[in-house]
Amino acid sequence: MSGPLLTVDDLRVTFPTRTGEVQAVRGVSFTLGRERLGIVGESGSGKSQTGRAIMGLTPGHAKITASKLEFDGIDLLRVTPKQRRNLRGKRIGMILQDPKYSLNPVMTIGKQIIETLLAHEKLSRSQARNRALEMLEAVQIRDPERVFGLYPNEVSGGMGQRVMIAMMLICGPEMLIADEPTSALDVTVQLDVLSILDKLVAERGMGLVFISHDLRLVSSFCDRVIVMYAGRIVEELPSADLAQAKHPYTQGLLNCLPTIGTDRHPLPVLERKAEWLA
Amino acid sequence: MKMGKMTDRTALSVRDMVVTFDEYVALDKVSVDVATGESFGIVGESGSGKSTLLRAVAGLNRFEEGTLTVDGRNYKSHGRTKEFYRTVQMVFQDPYGSLHPRQTVDRLLLEPLVIHGFDNIDARIARALDEVGLGAGFRFRYSHQLSGGQRQRIAIARALILEPKILLLDEPTSALDASIQAEILNLLEQARKDRNLTFVMVSHDLGVISHMCERVAVMKNGQIVETVPVEALEKRAFSADYTRQLLVASEGFRRG
């Protein structure tokens, strides 16, 4: 590998509103190689908008500026919509939070996966079908033939999220953005989905951007963590050094979780200081 | 406490409750006793029946068999008296779905007071908002003008405004960010201390349950697997394999 897979430099996402401009992302910079990078923050910290800007899913009325936003040498700010479409799904994949809302409810699971595949590759129907079935097997769905013909409402949340992972990985993307991929799932199912994701990302050597509000989860899953507050990066550190986090916001995020075997009443609450906005 | 024997210290007692939805058995002979002033937790995965149990107690589901005793009175499968709702109130999981979208906060808090014929309505609404840490500035807002945490505070205010003795909490923080969760849990604990409330709290997060509760029932497939004091979680002094699975899951992802 020569340069990094993704370079983000001074990314800003601004939404015009009646009461003036709202800056959701205010100067975010990072690079991603073939590694797992976590982005953590509360609701409204700009973590999802960062992911969406990379994917090209920011609403049309918003303004995106950056001194550099590059994926494998391609300037993402200057690409045509057609080039964007070629990247999306083929080279960059994105897993969204809730399979209930992000899968097409009136299309069978098999058809949706094949649709992604045929949008990017020239294959016959039966070849596409075989690829889809292989992929469903790779995400540890026991009976792929049966699930292939089901509608999204006929499968559980954990199964739905596996389908989503299958759909996103079938074209073999080099980078995957996972936006809260397990927040809508049950605790016991979360671990299964994470280990499937972990295995596939490692096997295929993808770059992963993992977005979540759960700092502990992200740090156990990723190599490196970026902590965001109010549209800015307040701290960046290797997951292993999480205990040595310096910024009070990061420490606050770590401390506010109730854990078994600690007796802290009341729980420490996050302080939000005005000077962190600067 | 002896099984089946009612004492005046029992706030809520469920005996052999069965709930079925068509052929599906959602609750299979579940028995629970919660003492006055206790905080009782229920954990389990989706579909284990934990929410169904709360809803059957609140009268939102019917139950086919079994008995329900709340505050010394017996209640049937369906139909709850006004007095029941003066005693028992519920806070739901999704703060986006449990507040009327076309009513202001003022109207939301007014309705229960009018139904139950309270006096001093104006002062009570102001006090309820204060208690949940939202000032008078929030009184004439609609729920879409509030964040998730603020909405959940309103839902708690709506439950507390009737001065109930028992609060049923169905995953009150699972739709919230970790940082907001801490604030809501602290608020609930403070309210319990101030009013000597009895909590029955459902969650899939063992960390939350062990922080908030004194005893916990583990549910699976519509049955209670075991009931243990929360200290047992820390000491690993429980017997069911399923409890161990939940505990492992709550400790987060491990590679390999």
UniProtKB/TrEMBL annotation, chain A:
This is ATP-binding cassette domain-containing protein. Residues 6-255 form the ABC transporter domain. PROSITE patterns: ABC_TRANSPORTER_2. The lineage of its organism: Bacteria, Pseudomonadati, Pseudomonadota, Alphaproteobacteria, Hyphomicrobiales. It comes from Endobacterium cereale. It is found in: Cell inner membrane. Belongs to the ABC transporter superfamily. Its main location: membrane. Gene3D superfamilies: P-loop containing nucleotide triphosphate hydrolases (3.40.50.300).
